[in-house]
Amino acid sequence: MSTQLDLVQGDITQQDVDAMVNAANSSLLGGGGVDGAIHRRGGPEILAECRKLRASHHGKGLRTGHAVATTAGLLPARHVIHTVGPRWSATEDRTELLASCYRESLRIAAELGARTVAFPAISTGIYGWPLDDGARIAVGTVRAAAPSVVEEVRFVVFDDRAHEAFARHLS
Length: 171
Ligand code: AR6
Fold this sequence. Notes:
171 residues, alpha/beta, six-stranded mixed β-sheet, 6 strands
């Protein structure tokens, strides 16, 4: 069975899914944008697990393009999968790192048995990745890499521009 790809405009923290992906940074200790919203709504349990990861497996922080799961705390999800997108660079092609965020998050989602996964438009906010290109990479990578255990991938975007960009690449 192939994975269904959906598009929703709204706040990712409101999505009722098995796994919610966080556009985190390598510190895993929170930030603005999606990361800020996830920690705010999810409560201190998520940060506590992130601190434990920093004290054990990820002492130097999580590398760009990698992903790791924690509890979802008070969020309407079972897991949060934290991934670190690349900052946009005009001089270096970091496409593969951004694609890796989607692939690694899906791999972990499958390991966790998640059937529904929500993704934000990774790197297209504070990290400055052009929206249309970010949407192209997101959709293309998920189409190619979604494991069959994941029944639905839901792209959750904030504004009209992001919605248009994802709709274009999904159609
Ligand atoms: N729900 C859905 N989409 C959102 C939400 C939300 N609640 N809030 C923002 N967006 P960003 P990045 C959109 O900045 O670019 C943090 O400080 C936003 O419009 O959250 O990967 C981290 O700690 C944009 O299209 O993530 C890192 O330091 C997209 O989500 C850094 O920001 C991603 O924007 C990561 O930057």
